[in-house]
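Appendix C reproduces, verbatim, an entry submitted by the partner laboratory led by Prof. M.T., so that reviewers can inspect both the input and the predicted structure.
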Amino acid sequence: MTPLVVSLNPAIDAEWRVTEVLPEEKNELLSERRWPGGKGVNVARWLTWLGTPGRLFLPLGGEAGRELAAGLEREGIDFAAYPLRESTRVNVVITPNPGNGPQYRFNPTWPRLTAREASGLRRQTLALVAEGTASDPLVLSGTLAFGAPPDTYARLVRAARRAGRRAVLDCDRQPFALAVKEAPWLVKPNEFELAQWAGKRLRTERAEYRAARALAEATGGWVLMSRGSQGAWLMNGGNPRAAWSASAPRVTPRNRVGAGDAMLAGAIAASGSADPCQWLRDAVATGTTATQVPPGELPARALWRRLRAAVRITPLT
């Protein structure tokens, strides 16, 4: 299995460490870290760490794009890039010392594709989808590049189905709603994204369950719903009895950036197994492990094995 991970809006992630964030005052930076980021890049990084390396496809431009490409090469991630006129974005994560406030995240709304870039990027992505085999899932992860048509993911899911490939979807808003109609094999919303799709606030666990079940029935496939510190649900739209809940191991999070992407990578890496409970167990273990290391870094395998042993799976009814 060699997943094709499509990351249409990658970034350099820059973490600024501060003592605390003071409004209308000078906030001194204690340190800065930079690494290749964006949801699809995170998925590719964790897939490689889990021993299921895939191929990453992403648009890159400018000095930040060259920095991102060099970082991927250092990490040994196989990738192909589509060149952009504007520079790749740099996301800023502001992390105060523990106890001195929440983490803040700032994501630019650029680069913006030209019409020619949007068309060329779509053609190249479709060509890569057509090259794969049935055992190679297509992973569509993260927001669309600014300027890309909102039905871009829907078209790619449709192309994957024609090629006999499983499509995995992790995005939000209109691109998610449009792509769901093309019946992807697996979708991974969190609670906020599920409420977006449902078009209403989900105030109770029962309401979340009904919305997740409706989403599974809409796709006819699998829904892996991230529930933060509570773990995750996995359910299938074609078989109401195929539904399980996984509790997350109790840990103190050091970081929450990319934990959902690590969860998705854990499920994909395990999806060669015939046992969906193993997909769910590995997903929750990997997502929890990501909270125990600084963003952009990878853990010791022993930590993942220990957390995996602590995941508990129960039927979801």
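The chain has a mean pLDDT of 94. Additional entries are available on request from the coordinating office.
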